[in-house]
Every structure is written in structure tokens, then in C-alpha cells.
Amino acid sequence: MKRHEFDFDNYFKRYPDLNGFYGRYGGCYVSDELKEAMQEINDAYFTICKSTRFIAELRRIRKDFQGRPTPISHLERLSNKYGNVQIYVKREDLNHTGAHKLNHCMGEALLAKYMGKKKVIAETGAGQHGVALATAAAYFGLECDIYMGKTDIEKQAPNVSRMKLLGANVIEVTEGLASLKEAVDAAFKAYVDDYKNCIYCIGSVVGPHPFPMMVRDFQMIVGVEARQQFFDMTGELPDAVVACVGGGSNSIGIFSGFLADPVEIYGVEPLGRGEKIGDHAASLTYGEEGIMHGFNSIMLKDEKGEAAPVYSIASGLDYPSSGPEHAFLKDIGRVKYDVVTDEESLDAFYELSRLEGIIPAIESAHAVAYAIKLAKKMKKGSILVNLSGRGDKDMDYIIEKYGVR
Questions:
Q1: Residue 4: inside a domain, yes or no?
Q2: With contact defined as beta carbons under 8 Å apart, do 100 and 131 qualify?
Q3: Is the residue at 298 inside a domain?
Q4: Are residues 268 and 362 in the same domain?
Q5: Domain extent at residue 272
Q6: Which residues is 298 bridged to in the sheet?
Q7: Is 123 a catalytic residue?
Q8: Do 258 and 291 touch, CB atoms closer than 8 A?
Q9: 16: cis peptide before it, omega within 30°?
Q10: Do 269 and 171 reside in the same domain of the chain?
Q11: Bridge partner list, 121
């Protein structure tokens, strides 16, 4: 479907529908008991999301606590190296806690306070969502349990320390591959056991309705800011917008600002070590329709039709599915999804650090790597990349494993 054939002017009023579907993707595939909990969250969210008091409080938090708006930086030296295409980055690495995750965590924690919950529960992969939620819990005086795979705990030691320092209880998950999927499994189980006293603050635009919608709405601030900032800087909109996609929160945030515009949009998935199952986490590129963690989307499956093992150098991207809205945007042709490898991401990680003085999260380096490839093809124009996080959490692991190039 061509962009002009779809009514993006009214897109956010139509999607998701009342049952949480974006086309055939999304929904709420959970037990009857948990459906009541999801409905409670849904009702509470719609009660307060239009409230001037809630909106004013969230705006105050974003300005006075998070440090929003985050700026856009022109990567002049990187741009000049690869030709005439000008590359810009939306600096979510300068958002408090170092990534975009705090945008939805402060909103979810504020919702938890409104609902009278005492505890917030979440999973984390790269640790940025865990740090953000631990920060939000400390800000609002809530208990906080963070489930994290043993593999990711070893890779993301600085963020584990931050979560503990902020007062969160970090619970190690050792089942399966001990990574993001298993952390989600464990967090969901804990939530089912205690949903009356806590709220599950999911870390991306995944999970049962209303989570994909809520996280998108809270992350939309990235796209709203970026669109206005870029226009103010250049007098026009970018020719292309690029963001990495795991579950898809940072990408849906910036994409939301440009869906109705004549702008090419690219979601970048992790190809990891290659195309073989177990060597990547590029679900939208290589997956098929399926249900996991309470929602229907595109997922990577094994020979039994269950969630396949996945891998990425980026802990925040190694998830066997993507948000249902991403699956929908791919189906209607509005967003193009492509892949970059670990090696390409590492090259971009080092280049951005050396040429521009910005050390990116390895997740964000996937988007930078794709922007470089795109710049070589385009020959002219401009690219806006969502730099979703900073690389403090990755430095020790990358230097230990790959050295300083």
C-alpha cells in the first residue's frame, strides 16, 4: 500500500482499535483472570491520559527531571566521510538515565501511583529499561522488581549496579538462554501471581493490549520533538528517518512523528552473526505470524512452531518478536525493515565515538550503521537517526571482547 492511499492524518485515532489490534496484529491473549488486570490498566490509562492534571505533571517531569527536550546533533564529520548526505541524530542518549526508556517508565509509574499500586515489575535486556524503571520507582516511592537474564547481567554489569543503587531488586533469570525472552517470561509469571498489588511496566511496544499502545503514546514525544526541531534547524523535513528495532519502543517513538509526511522510514533489525536461526533476532525480516507474551505479531519460530532462540550483540534487541504496530506498518508498506550485522554495528560504534565524540549504545549503533549504508546509496539529502541510548553500559564488554580498534 502506498503512503497516499492510507489515512495517516487520523491514524492514531484508529490504531489500535478498541480490542488492541493494528490490523490483525496485537490483541490481548492472556488468561481470563489476567484480562481483568489488563482491563483495569486500560481503564485507568484512558481515565487519566486526557486529564490536564496528568498531562501537566508528565510535562513537568519531562522538563524538570528528564531534561527534555533532547537536542538534535548534526554529524558533520561522519556525513562528510560518506559523501553529500547529511546525517543527524536525535539525542535520546542525553535523556536522564541515558536512553529513551525513561519516557514511558515515568508515565507508567505515574499511572501506577494513580491506581494505588505499591510495586512495579519489569523485565530488562540491555538494562536501560531496568535503570529507567528503577529511577521512576525511586522518584515516586514505589517498590521495584527487575527480572534480567543471567547472560545479560554478565554483559551489562554497569546497569545492574545502577539498578541496585537506585533500590531495585534485580532478579537473575537462568532458564533457557537466560536473555530477554526468559526475563519477560519470569516477569509475567511474577505479575500474574501478584497483579492486585503491582503493575507490570513492560519495556517496549510488546505484550498484551494496552501495553503496546501505552508505550507508543509515551514514546511519541521523541517523534513530536524531532520533527519540529529538524524543521527549525533546516527549514525542511529529513528525507529519511532511521531507528533500530528490537521490541520497537524507540523506533515507534520517532516514527510516530513522521508517518503522515513524505519521509522514508527505516527500521533496522539485528542480523547478528548471519541468517541462520539462532544467529540473529531479525523477526520482521525472517519471521512469521505468531502469538507470544500475550500478543499476535511476527516472530521467529523453531521447528516446533515455538519462539526460536535468538542472538544479537545488543542485549536490548535479542527478542524473538517485534511490536504488533511494527508488523502492521510493515504490512501496509509505510516502514521498510532491513538488517545490519554485529560487525557493521561495531564499526559504527567505533566510528561515531571517534569522529563525533558520541559513544552510542550498541543497539543505537545498528541504526547508525544503516544510516551510513543508506547515505552511500542516496548520494544527496538528509537522514535523521534516533540515537536511542548511550554506550556507557556497553564499553567494558566491547573493549574486553573486541578491543579498542
A1: no
A2: no
A3: yes
A4: yes
A5: 67-99+220-402
A6: 289
A7: yes
A8: no
A9: yes
A10: no
A11: 145, 200
For 59, residues 6+ apart whose C-beta sits below 8 A from its C-beta are none
Out of 79, 364, 388, 393, the active site residue is 388
321 with 287: CB under 8 angstroms? yes
179 is a catalytic site residue: no
Residue of 92, 123, 264, 325 with catalytic role: 123
Q: Specify if 12 maps to a domain.
A: no
The contacts of residue 275 (CB under 8 Å, 6+ apart) are 286
Indicate if 196 belongs to the active site: no
Domain with residue 287: its CATH number is 3.40.50.1100
**Residue-wise pLDDT tens digits, 183-227:** 989 998 999 899 999 999 999 999 999 999 999 999 999 999 999
Torsion sign (Cα): 205, 207, 213, 217: negative
In whole angstroms, give the CA distance from residue 273 to residue 309.
13
Paired residues of 25 in beta bridges: 22
Model pTM? 0.95
Give the C-alpha distances (Å, rounded to integers) separating 286 from 257, 322, 383.
27, 12, 26
In this structure, are 231 and 180 located in the same domain? Answer: no
Residue 1 pLDDT greater than 60, yes or no: no
Count of domains for the chain: 2
Of the candidates 73, 79, 90, 101, the residue annotated as catalytic is: 101
For the stretch 293-310, pLDDT in tens is 999 999 999 999 999 999
